[in-house]
């Protein structure tokens, strides 16, 4: 059975017309309805077994529901202001090294800003137009008066002695492995008649230099076409082919 009123809806039950729910703000009525539904089921069991004929259990359940709703409507606690921790007075270690020095040089003030922040004693500084922005000592060190500073000499970082020795050893090893020949030279030639021919690469050098050609001819004649040398390997092979007498 439904009930009339602002709390009653299309699917409202009998609990929507009770006093606790009607006195509860609209934002907390769903929470109150859930609490009532749970306590009503417990109260029905107590009433069925006749354990509380005077209604003490029901009153205790009502007070519990009211306390829960009052607690839910309390505003959240205000944020507490916490004191900042005491500063640590001990000296902290400073970072160093080549990498950190380079990072500091990257973000440090330029020489122009350093000159802008300096003032010469007893000398009036120049100003930039009508903005009354002082230029400090910028342009005072040069006779021409131009807003220019001397270029800072950058120190070139040299490799360490150990690294230099490793580089020298590597360069020497590469120089020993390199040859004087060109990487694009080949012993194959293309001719319009026979197509691809296999030629001697040393022939071109011998044709250009007669002394080299003469030396190569002497070596070739001595090694392959000597008048005194013999083909000992061929003679051994022929001797092994002659049948032996039985």
From TrEMBL:
GO CC field: precatalytic spliceosome; U4 snRNP; U4/U6 x U5 tri-snRNP complex
Keyword tags: Nucleus, Ribonucleoprotein
PROSITE patterns, sorted: NOP (PS51358)
Feature: compositional bias, Basic residues: 92-104, 153-164
GO biological process, any: spliceosomal tri-snRNP complex assembly
Keyword Nucleus attributed: yes
Domain Nop: 1-74
UniProt xrefs under Pfam families: Nop (PF01798), Prp31_C (PF09785)
InterPro entries: Nop_C, Nop_dom, Nop_dom_sf, Prp31, Prp31_C
Localization (cell): Nucleus
KW Lipoprotein (keyword) present: no
Residue span of region Disordered: 72-104, 148-178
Name of the protein described by the UniProt record: SnoRNA binding domain-containing protein
Taxonomic lineage: Eukaryota, Sar, Alveolata, Apicomplexa, Conoidasida
